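Hi team,

Filling in the usual template for the complex we talked about on Friday. All components are listed, including any nucleic acid strands or ligand strings, so the model treats them as one assembly.

SUBMITTER: L.P.
PURPOSE: interface mapping
COMPONENTS: two
RESIDUES: 602
SEQUENCES:
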Amino acid sequence: MSNPDPSAERELVHKTAALARLSIGAAEEARLGAQFARILGAFHSLSELNVEGVPETTGGPRPASAAFGRLRADEPRASLERAAALVNAPQQDGEFYVVPKTVGGPS
Amino acid sequence: MSAAPLKGVVEGAAALRAGRTSALAEAERALERLERTRGALNAVLAVDRAGALERARALDARRARGEALGELAGVPFALKANMCLSGVEANCASRVLAGYAPPYTATFVQRLLDAGANPIAIANMDEFAMGSSGENSAYGTTKNPWDVARTPGGSSSGSAALVAAGVVPFALGSDTGGSVRQPAALTNLAGYKPTYGRISRYGLIAFASSLDQVSPFARSVADVELVTRVMSGHDERDTTSLPEPAFAAEPEPAALAGLRIGVPREYFPATLDAAVRARCEAALAELERGGARLVPVSLPHSEHAIATYYVVATAEASSNLARYDGVRYGPRRDGDGSLQSMYAATRAQGFGDEVKRRILLGTYVLSSGYYDAWYRRALKVRTLLLRDFERAFERCDIVAGPTSPTAAFKLGEKTDDPVAMYLSDVLTVPASLAGLPALSLPCGFLDAGSNRLPVGLQLIGPARADARVLALGRRYQQLSSFHTELSPLAREVAA
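RESULT (copied from the run log):
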């Protein structure tokens, strides 16, 4: 997956950064692009392994116990108070987080 | 004030219960040692002086009233900056979470508080636990108390440095791919990553959820074991926590007779630092003289562990770190006034280089067209790595080898080469991917100029065999004395 073409590397970083909601300048794009290609190149050995029929492991060891991962009863309980949940927000109105307008253009 | 021998966890709690010291004296001593070493180490992001002194006074009052005290009564400790103690800043050493004071306390922290332990400080770390050297903090690099020109390892750099400098008897780190075991090896400490699910992660700020484990540092294995037992046990607030109570300690296998220690050939490659190899081989020989049998084993997919780990961990990180967008916590950057540009500007200015690299890598391996080739494939290779261990454990009881391929490297040595830095984790990520309990403990020193640098031995057990791994670790520390040696900074602090 390593790409020797610097403009393609930059393009890849550019597209991925947009997906990741990261704004990245041109110089950073070039630097990260080169590193990105080197990292993917170093990891390329994964593609050489035969993994046909091998199941995926998505977590740590799972005990066979029926209790593992079981959800608790759906009963109302005290939770974090609204004021405590809002206390770290950069902008809030006492009830909600406040964010820039999402419809009808910038407010 | 500070002229007192360094006490361990077990010893310190016993001294307090017996009335030979007070919680207030221990807290004041730790705070004073912290200030004395602060400039040299940069290991601390926040100090909870008022809270620590208040808790200490309350504990002393309880003792004066004759009330029963917990197993960790009056023992000062430090938390990593990705752990929640209500009202105390936990910014993950990132600008994106600057000022974030969690409104709740983590389950594992609460269990330590209930046992009487006293948190005094929040330790520096690699930003969002992404790093192997402590050099990725937005608040400056942490130094190694054995040689301040070198790394203490990472990502739990500050926690390791504080224990190795004699400031606190124990500290908590989090180990995702080796972030406690590797710094433990580089600073002459015991560092223990329990079986996946042994300790609740409720209140641990997530990096890679299928890997992250709360893990303690201390100078002795007995101390990390006590702290681990106090924190472990099911927590209904974490669905990945094992549905069983805290494990009971096992007696040390005194004669070691019959114990089979598997030595994987892949953990002693030709590229391994010669002195690290020699110290680990000497430690294994010591265990053999004690009656254990060394059994050659193979973990044939180990060479793919780094790639697997960095695909899986970054994929999970790209998802976990999506929440840092300037809405609920941390400073907000406005961009051009739109919501999307606010997200992108907040994240661009809030995250450091390594975090951006990993978010990009994780986003890429999860993106359309690349998901099967990278992420899904890595999950399958993870299964192969797990099976390697299962096969090895048919032939042995414990797997042993070096924790880190080198001793502490110089600061700046690997910062320009992410791949070289990632390779620091080559011997620790396999146990992480397999969810296995793994302990790093001191097994000797090598000479580096005028300094001696510690070397760590890693013991890995089958899933849920935490008590077995720790009992063997305790036994090794009866046969050796490396763990009793103090760093130059700790000797100064205790003088």
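MY TAKE: Residues 9-259+461-494 of chain B form a domain with the Amidase signature (AS) enzymes fold (CATH 3.90.1300.10). The first strand of chain B starts at residue 44 and ends at 47.

Thanks, L.
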